[in-house]
Every structure is written in C-alpha cells, then in structure tokens.
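Possible race condition, two jobs.
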Amino acid sequence: MITYFSILAILLSVVGVFGLVMFEAGYRRKEIGIRKIMGATASELLYMFNKNYLYIVGICFVIAVPVAYLGVVSWLAGFAYKVPVYWWVFLMAFVVVCLITIATVSFQSWRAANENPVNSIKTE
C-alpha cells in the first residue's frame, strides 16, 4: 500500500514540475527566441532551465532532510526493534529526485528550445 501511494506521490510531483516548466517556457518564449537568434544552442537553453530547477531541488532537499530525519527517528522510537537511519538513503532519494526533475524539465524545455524563434518573436 505504501508503494502505491509513493508512486502516486511521485507521479503527482512530476505532473506539477511538468506544468511549472510548461508555464515558464510559455512565459519566457520571447526570451528563448531572442537567445536562439543571438546564437544560443538548444543545449545551452536546456542547461539554463535545468540549472534553475536543480537549484530549487537543492534548497528543498536541504530543508526536507532534517525534517524527514527527525520524523523518521521519532516514528521509529516507538518500535521494539530499532533500525538505524542511514545517510545514503537521503542521498539516493536526492539523486532519484534530481534525475526525475532533469528528465521532466529537459523534455519540455527541448520542445521550447527547438521551436522556430521567428514564430515566438513575431507575436508582439
């Protein structure tokens, strides 16, 4: 049951990140077009978007780890058999979240970066 709800939570977060990237790409459409005209490559635009989102993920990770650690330790205190909380579990969770975020952001940003820049600029 926990696995199903975890998968559901991950899917909801991916949909949220996807919607946020779609909104930002639409909002920054003219900027992307101007950058493309000035010579920016698609990989540079992908780096620009991914850098912003990985910064956000890093800040959220720094806030979430102490809260999660304290929550898990207090929850496990009520059990007869104690299980240690390892640091690599948090690191693995961070890596998985970063990979999911990079995949989601790159997918949507790739579409915005490969769009014809003339179409985005002439809508003024």
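Job #2 (started ~2 s after job #1):
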Amino acid sequence: MSVTLDLTRAAPAVSAPVNLSGLTREGLRQALIEAGVCPPEKAKMRASQVWDWIHHFGVTDFAAMSNVAKDMQAKLAEHFTLARPEIVERQVSKDGTRKWLIRTAPGIEIETVYIPDVGRAGALCVSSQVGCTLNCTFCHTGTQKLVRNLTAAEIVAQVQVARDDLEEWPSPKEDRRLSNIVFMGMGEPLYNLDHVADAIDIISDNEGIALSRRRITVSTSGVVPQLQALGERTQAMLAISLHATNDPLRDVLVPLNKKYDLAQLMAGIRAYPGLSNARRVTFEYVMLKGVNDSPEEARALLDLIKGIPAKVNLIPFNPWPGTDYECSDWKTIERFAAILNKAGYASPIRTPRGRDILAACGQLKSESEKVRASVRRAEQAAA
C-alpha cells in the first residue's frame, strides 16, 4: 500500500484535457477506449502508434502523427493534449549545467536541472513535488512550503523539456546526452510514489524514451515504509539522503529521522529488493564544516553501513542565501573520503555544478516563489 499525500485542494481543474504523456501503456489504451477514439479491439495497436509518436519522436501535435488517420487525429485533439509546460526561465551555467523553471499550471512551478558529464553522459535531476515537507536544515529546497504532488505527466514533462532543449528526438539508442535520471530535485519521491512509479514506467519503456531502470535513481530521505514498494514497483536504483551517523544529529539535519530513525532506515535498506554488488545503494552525505566531517564521523559511517553493498557520494555543501552552514574544507573532505576508500567503499567527491545559477544540490527553489512573496509584501504595505 503506497503513501501519497492528499493535496487535492491544489489539484489541476478536472475539466483540463488529459495529457497523454503521463499515461502508462495500459492507461493510454484505456483512455482511447473511454474517449471513443477507437474500438476496444483496436485500442492496443492504436495506443502503440500514439505512444511511439509521443515518446520516441517527441511530437506535440496530433496532426504530426502521419500514420494515424485524420479522423482519429481530430478525436485525439478533441479529448487530449500533448502540450509541453511553459518554460518560465532557462539558465545555463558557465560549467554547462542547464536549469529550467517550468510552470505546469497556474501557481505550479518546478525546477529541473541537466548536468553534463554525469553518469554515462549527462544526468537530469527531476522534481517529484512542488516544494517539500521535510525541512532539512541544510537544504534550500526544503525552505519552500509544499504545494502539491506532481502528476506523472508533470514528471515526464521535465524529461521532455530537457530533450527538446538538447535536441534528442527521436529517442537515440546510443550517443545520448541525457543518459541518466535522478529523482533528486524538489520534493520527497516516496511521498508521491504512485506518480513516480508511473513516470518511471513511461521513461524506461523500450519503445519510447528507453532509459534503463538501472540508470534511474530515486533518492529518499528515509520514508522507510515505502522502500519495499519502491524497489518492487520501479526496480530503480536507490539513493539515501543520509548526512549523519547518529540520531541526535540526523534529527536536526533531516527531521524525518524523528519518525524513522537510523535503525529502522538501515533495516529497510538492507531489505531493499534487488540490492547487490551490481545494484548498490548510494548514500548521499553533504559535508558540513564542523558538523559531520570529522574522522570519527567517517569511522561511524563505516560502522553504520557495514555489510551493505554501497557507495558514498560526498557532497560539498552548496551555500544559499540565509544559511548558517559552511562547506567543509577540501582537505577535510579528502581525509573523510580516504577513510572510506581504505575500508573498500567508493566515495567520490561530487564536483559542485551550476552553483552560479543556484542549480547545485540542495539549491533548487522556485525563484517565482520569492517574487510572489515580494509582491505580497508590497501589496500589504500599500494597503
């Protein structure tokens, strides 16, 4: 049984046409039948045709579907949409990182980041919620209040927007620029597992975008009851936003720890479906000066993850306006990494990317939220 936050107060209007990009294969087949686009006996074939145009060729107009009859094109356009969301802002860092501020509905804005030279070729960091409930104290994204869960269509749209910009249609099988997907943007994916799972089914389909599930990573702060379901439903790679080796410190850095402490979290990780040396869990550990970066903490981390097929990503803290934390010195980070390496754990130090456009890890936050807040303050002052 999945846990999905009930945020229907902010849900899109029910009268809005359904975006076919967010439907699984079976969902697409059913939608065509229910809308009277085609009879049930032809729905599977028609759904495959439409699927190919949406997810392999990336079309946004039903009229572009050349092997679909004109009358069917008209029926599709009457009932459905393929429209991309609005790109409010596009920024490119001096290191090649790209960030898009995407508006999927009125008041619904998310940030998505493409990082070149990560994974096989380049990784897209996607969001699963608008805002976040977790309030991790080192994370800029966590300072934005949760608005609602994203739909599968809104998650898939982030991939489509990136591939539009990277000019990767039709879907390439080789020489991809976008080779990996990481659910490490805004929100906690396991609080929106139904839509995240559907989006992964769509993204990984071999006749569409065709990204291997082993190149899709879902990062969680530790929603322990959902770990089993995540593994069984998605077969995605697991990443854990850890950042501390003891409960008192993690209670501060990652307040969710008060609900699911380290003992529960580690037990859930050890039981994650498919965990093996070939499918290691990634522990994410942000390096905070004088907080969690001592050699003693490194050795405590080794004790905590002992026996788990794992690697540890050491993340230099990315500063943001108003934070009290500082990044650990580089020598301190290297010393921490050396202790982990000596024990046999890969512990790459993540190179900060996109800091100049606030696109680095933990920095995502809709700029428009701050603009709206400024407008409200101005209106209140004038009242």
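Residues 86-372 form a domain with the TIM Barrel fold (CATH 3.20.20.70).
Logs attached separately.
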